[in-house]
Amino acid sequence: AQSVTQLGSHVSVSEGALVLLRCNYSSSVPPYLFWYVQYPNQGLQLLLKYTSAATLVKGINGFEAEFKKSETSFHLTKPSAHMSDAAEYFCAVSMGGGFKTIFGAGTRLFVKA
Amino acid sequence: DTGVSQNPRHKITKRGQNVTFRCDPISEHNRLYWYRQTLGQGPEFLTYFQNEAQLEKSRLLSDRFSAERPKGSFSTLEIQRTEQGDSAMYLCASSLWKGSVRDTEAFFGQGTRLTVV
Q1: Are A98 and B97 in contact (CB < 8 Å)?
Q2: β-strand partners of B24
Q3: Closest Cα of chain A to B87: distance in Å?
């Protein structure tokens, strides 16, 4: 069975500081991993995805994530936070091939001026 | 094409009433998914279709829930005899499955927020 654990339901950073959102996964097969962002009362927008190519994945809005098989992790980072990054972030895992996606509980990112 | 469209965006209903939501996927997408998201949680998978065939249903999808995709295009999700616990955001997503495992991206709609009073 697949599962995702996001460490920290809330993360607060200052504007310009490093953003680090943690995600660990469990999967019996090589996983496909995703980070989505959700703004209030909106659907989910894909930030980036890992599909077994490069382990360092670059996404939109300056975000990137690194797949570490030995640590079963897929942490999301951004070098410098912007106020517009304040949102809910979800890590997700899929077996691929358009199969259902399993989501973590989410991490709400707050950005302080 | 403007992406996945869901209607209505908001629905308030009295307990015991039936409600129906509609999802229009991206036109060429053959897979369509329904998720439920409660406050403070990530989306939970409910069911998915490939074309008009419903391929999987979660145990979360009780007998009161039914989903259809009659012509392999739009889909409806109906909840009968709504309960307060059904209050949630219902998200629809679609993807294009062409037989490649690299086809993994699902595009989400903005959701329908259901409030049962």
Answers
A1: yes
A2: B5
A3: 14
Q: Using an 8 Å Cβ cutoff, are B110 and B9 in contact?
A: yes
| pLDDT tens-place string over residues A28-76 | 777 889 999 999 878 889 999 888 778 899 999 999 999 999 999 999 9
Residue B86 φ then ψ, to 5°? -80, -10
Hey, are the CB atoms on B41 and A106 less than 8 Å from each other?
yes
Interval A2-26: pLDDT, tens: 889 999 999 999 999 999 999 999 8
Euclidean distance between CA atoms A68 and B46, whole angstroms: 29
- What single-letter DSSP state applies at residue A96? S
Q: Got the DSSP string for A51-88?
A: -SS-SEEE-GGG-EEEEEGGGTEEEEEESS--GGG-EE
What digits encode the pLDDT tens for the residues B37-78?
A: 998 889 999 999 999 999 888 888 889 999 999 988 999 999
Burial, B117: exposed, middle or buried (Cβ in 10 Å; 0-12, 13-18, 19+)? Answer: exposed
